[in-house]
Amino acid sequence: MSFFFEVLIGGLLSGIMYSLVALGFVLIYKASGVFNFAQGALVFFAALTFVGLGELKLPFWLALPATLAVMVLLAFVIERLMLRPLVNQPQITLFMATIGLAFFIEGLAQMMWGANVRGLDLGLQDEPIQWISDKTGMNISKFDLAAAGVAALLVAVLAIFFNRTRVGRALRAVADDHQAALAVGIPLRQIWTIVWGVAGAVALVAGLLWGARNGVQYALTFVALKALPVLILGGFESVPGAIVGGLIIGASEKLAEVYIGPFVGGGIEGWFPYVLALVFLLVRPEGLFGEKIIRRI
Amino acid sequence: MATGARQIGDPILALEGISLSFGGVKALTDISFDVREHEVRAIIGPNGAGKSSMLNVINGVYRPQRGTISFRGRVRRDMNTHDAASHGIARTFQNIALFKSMSVLDNVMTGRNLKMKASFLEQALWIGRARREEYEQREKVEAIIDFLEIQHIRKTPVGRLPYGLQKRVELARALAAEPTLLLLDEPMAGMNVEEKQDMCRFILDVNEQYGTTIVLIEHDMGVVMDISDRVVVLDYGKKIGDGTPDEVRADRAVIDAYLGVAR
Amino acid sequence: MIYREAGQFKASYAADSAIFPIRQDRVGIAVILAFVFVVVPLTATPYLFSAILIPFLILSLAALGLNILTGYAGQVSLGTAAFMAVGAFASYNFMLRVPGMPILLAFVGGGVMAALVGILFGLPSLRIRGFYLAVATLAAQFFILWVLTKVGWITNYSSSGVITAQQIVILGYRFDAPAAKYLLVLSIASIMALAAKNMARGNVGRSWMAVRDMDVAAEVIGIRLMRAKLLAFAVSSFYCGVAGALYAYAYLGTVEPEAYSLDLSFRILFMVIVGGVGTVLGSFLGSAFITLVPVLLSVTVRFLDASLNLGIAESTISNLELMVFGGLIIFFLIVEPHGLARLWQIAKEKLRLWPFPH
Amino acid sequence: MPSDPHASPALDTFPRLLLHHAEVRGDHPAYREKDLGIWQTWTWRQVAEEVRALACGLAAQGFERGMRLAIIGDNRPRLYWSMAAAQTLGGIPVPMYQDAPAAEFVFVLNDAEIAYAIVEDQEQVDKVLEAMPSVASLAHVYYDDPRGLRNYEGVTSFERLQEIGREFDRAHPGFFEAEVAKGRAEDVSVMLYTSGTTGKPKGVCQAHRAFIEAGRGGCEFDRLTAADRILSYLPMAWVGDHLFSYAQAMYAGFTINCPESSDTVMTDMREIGPTFYFAPPRIFENLLTQVMIRMDDASALKQWLFRRFMTVAKRCGAEIMDGKPGVPAVDRLLYGLGSVLIYGPLRNVLGMSRIRVAYTAGAAIGPDLFRFYRSIGINLKQLYGSTETCAYVCLQPDGGVRFDTVGIAAPGVEIRLTGNGEVMVRGPMLMKEYYKRPDATAETIDPEGYLHTGDAGVIDADGHLKIIDRAKDVGRLSGGAMFAPNYIENKLKFFPHIKEAVAFGDKRDRVCAFINIDMGSVGNWAERRGIAYSGYTDLAQKPEVYELVRECVETVNAELAADASLAASQVHRFLVLHKELDPDDDELTRTRKVRRGFVAQKYAVLVDALYGGRTVQHIETLVKFEDGRSGMVAADLRIADAKTYDRAAVAAAT
Asked: What angle do CA C278, C280, C286 make, to 5 degrees?
């Protein structure tokens, strides 16, 4: 029984990290209606840059803001060179553009820092926490717990950013109705830059955590694919959806891997989340937190 | 316009105690009325009176929570759009629902999709039945294009057409299905005087040439009084009047609820 | 300018709804066909065949498949490659397990299998739309590849999961010369393109476009959404399946499921977008663009590298290519979001009205 | 070739021609009509069948030899067939102008004692029914297009009429053939009403022979064959359409194409691409204007190409088409290039790619206009004729085309000029008579069988007829030389700067003229050179404007000087009027023809000033404004002299 909980908790913890990535998607989709497929690339880019700067003997407390700056700069460039010319294009077009962007960023990242796999040490060991295992016999990884903590923290920060700050409110307004937002004089383009910047920051954090766990490598870009089922589950526009969705996906994925995997030859975590999300959607098309849509004509 | 020829027959459509609500919002409450064969039946009422919802119930876009719909003798709890179409109910929409990227011709052709039986394989190979059907249906469609005098825009994508013409194309698409019952949702909204006159002429021609039964929603009282045989008046989802234009015009409740405030 | 339409009147609906109603177009297409069927086979080099022409044609076919689904029926899919894989492995097994199976029939069989799977994964489209559907199709991508790798029977228990496509033999003739393969692929592609065009101009095509443009209205005039959408998935997947089979038999030769990765799906989606959504021509133009650009890129980069001996590292070059490719896509979407086909369409209009402005 | 009609003498009526074509080219398309989105086609055999059914139907309904059948509507195959059907029965089709109001129908219907009418659609039916009460004879009305006529009483559909016919045909085998056999070349084949600018319209009776001869002459003259196609869009009641779309088609067996509707003519023209085309000058003018407007918003490159190659075309286009020698190789090369880049495409967008022969007539056509079409390779020619002559008197031969003549006498036509220059013609194409108007007939056709056209003209050295004026307007200078005001005025009006002109000279020693400048074009001209002006009166009196006008006048003088009979009527003095001539002031007719007499006495002061040799003259005039108010316009008009040429000099120069 305790094993079950161990798996479950492990799942939930990594689920939070999915949420983290998913959050990046949601931010951008809410504010600019863009399904940003480059989010994974951003994670990769952020992590790589951070490590790269570290290799240049930059101390952690300097490398972090530096990378953040780079991410914001990137966001600015993207808004200027990609989003602005593509404004009012159909969503599918913007989606395609972000795929192109993903290629570009991946190329850029490896160009700047090289493609070889690097480790990233945040001073957290991926080892069970002694006293928990003593008490319950469950192995809960320090790292996972810490990571979850960080993620939770970030989510909290974002929540505040959204609800308390002026920018945040403006952002919500934009998300609700572009035209109206424009009408009341909210500078759409700045908002986009900011959002992409924030998404970049989120990507950075996600990048650090994932990087520290699996090493900083091209594979990080696939983290995005992990986040997609979370999105369909939670909805493209819902922050809580992203979080809860992440937890559900994380947990169920681990459980499935452990309890179903062996019978079908393993490796099912690649598709299981999707199928799960899909089945869920068939039952409830409006997603976790979306309300029922009445299609008026 | 001599409409003397057509014989108004027995009811082909009867609605009994229809009630419809979205979530908590009541759109229609216990509405009953009938439509007789070959007649032009108007539904009027202030905005938000539930007129469009009424049409959507009749051809199955919405499913009412209570009430029955009997069409050509068969009584149903509710319609479904496909049955409606295949039993000869066609309609136009308040804000034009054409296929924007397709040409006028193709739009009208879609109106005859139910008449085409060829499988997609036959169509892929463009053999036998597929080809034959395509040409037979094209001829029928051309007749309608002729009828509504839109030959000159036959191959134009509807997206590029002015509003008035789009309305006409939508009517053409509905007619292409050779409906027995035609539902028109504000066919003259936003038209100038000439366009309105044309549209009136077309509606009456349809009703007369093809004997099509017509239910229309219209705001322009003048038009309604001119072309309709009987009028239903809705207000806040309730029926407050029903009868010939003159009767309705005289009806106190109607005047208060609608004519009074609207004009 | 080259067009002289005066006097080309239509006396029958057949003539009026022909695929190429204008004589000049008929002439043009005839010339092109003559060129690709006669001149190219006689002149092109083996490298050109097997490295460029054959993949280009095969991917055009796949793009055409996706275009039917996305362009005509308006359903976005990211699982194209998976359906190709189904086609490939199904054909392989037909050849493997049905004695005396004619290869063309095996291809068709592969297509049909893909179609069935396509319908299965098309079911969600009845409930969900837009990006939700797009992401949902990723399920197909991952699940199918997973099945292909996990179920040994499919790969005939080859330890590496790699299969070797059987020889292409039709009526005793072995298609192993590149030129021969090219002609085979070309013929299949042409025929299927024609079929696609026929569907597009027929009732099926109109129903698809109707569903795409305004599904409620489509339903109201009696088009069955489910029928239309699932048919679109089926036909689309059939095209992809056949393309996938050819990809294995006429291009790669030895295949593992990974050959049909998400990357391939995206490349094909690019082809559709860059080429022009909802056009048969676009599928081919897009495919040409996406297949040629990387080749040209690496050629030019390497050329520059060599001529100016900059001594660029191999990795750098590939990264550079990646960047330029990505950049090009974005640039393209900015300058002509409607794709290459639209460019041609505009040019044609101008030529028809010349000297008057368009 | 055996299928050549005039090989066998029997083909002397239209029904016989029809049956002949049905026999020798049964599957050749005879009629096309854009309907239901495509060009519906009828072969000659089918047409023969249709006509047969229709004729029998009419017979069954009591239509007899000599009766007249009214035909009203746009150009529709069935209406053309109705003519043939009537002719088969020895009846007389009377095509009427479809756009006339019911009131005007009444006169013709009564005058021709119409009992049977075949009309196009509801619109025409309504008008006919409206006219019916006041037309005692009218009893049977048939319609082609049933739209909206379902509940009409007492009118019959074309289909029904043909059904009746087929039954009748079965019941009376051989009837049709017998009727065709009864026809004689002298029988009246059609009655066309003259538009009647003066007095009531007169019904012109034309025999089969007349139109067949005219048709044959035209076809041979321009080598028209069954392979040709024509777009029939001009009123069926107009003699020209009857010649081109009926007589010539029936003779040569070529294809008639009827547009979908009057407002799709241009597109239909483009689709059909006729090889043989007729249009009045104003249509060619409108087309040219459209071309210019469209070219204005074309890209710079295209505009440059257009200008560049149009100058080339002006220089040598017409010559190359006429196969004249002496065009430099360079020009030929440029022209070749031009026809790929500009002329060809232009002909294509105009729907004129395949035109072998295009005719215009009915009004004077400007030289620039005329030259434009010929220079881009469209063989545009002029002809001369009238209802009384089957629109068949003069034709311009290929290679011998000049904008200021109407060509040479057509095959079988004799032309003679009276003392005062009136054109008289004789030939097989002359009308038989004006219906029920022996008096008018006698006035028009003299005992020698010459028809007095009422036009004044001159025949130049190489036998080309030049129509200069209505005979009644032609006067004489006191010197005795002929004075043709319209001719001079038209020449002046061809200049874009000149809107109206009034020439004086009858019984005077020399010619002087009033000029109205064209506010539009002169206004632009003035703005381009920064000449400020307050209004018409002001602009009109600017010295620069006078210079501008003087140039025009002198060019005209030069042209006049070149012509023996007209050299004397060069314009010696002119003035630019201070106000525009206006129908509201009765100075012009509603059709914008100058009322010379009225103007002369209204502005007597000015006329005297012109001949009195004064250089300036004050004048005050009462004018009506748009809003009906009236006011005074006063001005001191300058009077200018224009250089005149003596003939020898010009002759030497040219």
From this structure: 85
Cα distance between residue D485 and residue D499, in whole Å: 15
Q: Is residue C328 part of a domain?
A: no
What pLDDT shows up at residue D626? 67
For residue C315, what are its two tokens?
């990795």
pLDDT above 80: residue C15: yes
What is residue B189's predicted lDDT score, i.e. its pLDDT?
Answer: 86
Residue scoring higher pLDDT (D606 or D521): D606
Q: How many helices (H) and strands (E) does chain C have?
A: 16, 4
- What is residue C187's three-state secondary structure? helix
Residue D4 has pLDDT above 70, yes or no: no
Task: Residue A40: list chain C partners with CB under 8 A.
Answer: none
- At residue C113's C-alpha, the angle toward residues C111 and C117, to 5°, is 115
CA dist list (Å): D359 to D194, D214, D395, D459: 21, 15, 9, 21
Contact at CB, C6 and D351, closer than 8 angstroms: yes
Chains that touch A (3 or more CB pairs under 8 A): B, C
Chains A and D touching, counted as 3 or more CB pairs less than 8 Å apart: no
The residue segments making up the domain with residue C121 are 33-261
Rounded to 5 degrees, φ, ψ at D40 are: -65, 140
Which range (A187-196, B84-93, C56-65, C72-81) has the least confidence?
A187-196
Alpha helix stretches (DSSP H) within D228-377: 239-241, 249-252, 265-272, 281-296, 300-321, 329-338, 344-350, 367-375
Residue of chain C with shortest Cα separation from A296 = C216
Between B100, B114, B125, which is nearest C198 by CB? B125
Is residue C155 in some structural domain? yes
> CATH 3.30.300.30 in chain D, residues?
474-653
- Residue C77, domain member (yes or no): yes
Chain A, residues 59-78, CB within 8 A of chain B, namely none
* Interface residue A91 vs chain C (CB under 8 A): yes
Q: Which of B133, B157, B178 is the last residue of a domain?
A: B178
Other residues' Cβ atoms within 10 Å of the Cβ of residue C98:
12
The answer to the question of residue B220 being in a domain is yes
Q: Which of B145, B178, B211 is the last residue of a domain?
A: B178
| CATH fold group of domain D474-653 | GMP Synthetase; Chain A, domain 3 (3.30.300)
- Residue A149: domain span: 2-283
Q: What mean pLDDT value characterizes chain C? A: 93
Q: Is residue C269 predicted with pLDDT exceeding 80?
A: yes
For chain C, the chains sharing at least 3 beta-carbon pairs closer than 8 angstroms are A, B, D
One of 3.40.50.980, 3.40.50.10800, 3.30.390.10, 3.30.300.230 is the CATH number of D5-277, namely 3.40.50.980
Among A274, A280, A289, A294, the strongest candidate for a mutation testing the C interface, having the largest count of C CBs within 10 A, is A274
Whether chain C has a CB inside 8 Å of the CB on D353: the answer is yes
The answer to whether residue D314 neighbours chain C at the CB level (below 8 Å) is no
B213 Cβ under 8 Å from any chain A Cβ = no
Contact B205 D261 (CB under 8 A): no
Helix H segments across chain A? 2-32, 39-55, 60-78, 91-113, 130-136, 142-164, 166-176, 178-183, 188-214, 223-234, 239-259, 261-264, 272-283
Q: Does A294 touch chain B (CB under 8 A)?
A: yes
Asked if this assembly's ipTM is beyond 0.95, the reply is no
pLDDT digits (tens, 9 = 90+) for D251-291: 999 999 999 988 889 999 999 999 999 999 889 988 998 89
**Identity of the residue in B143, B151, B205 whose CB atom sits nearest the CB atom of D264:** B151
Tell me how many domains chain A contains: 1
Q: Which residue has the tokens 């795929």?
A: A99
What is the value of pTM for the model shown?
0.89
pLDDT tens digits, one per residue of A223-261: 788 888 998 888 888 888 888 999 999 999 889 888 887
Task: Kindly tell me if the per-residue pLDDT of B253 is higher than 70.
Answer: yes
- The distance of C352 to chain B (nearest Cα, Å) reads 16
A100: nearest CA in chain C?
C326
Specify the range with the lowest mean pLDDT, choosing from A240-249, C241-250, D332-341.
A240-249
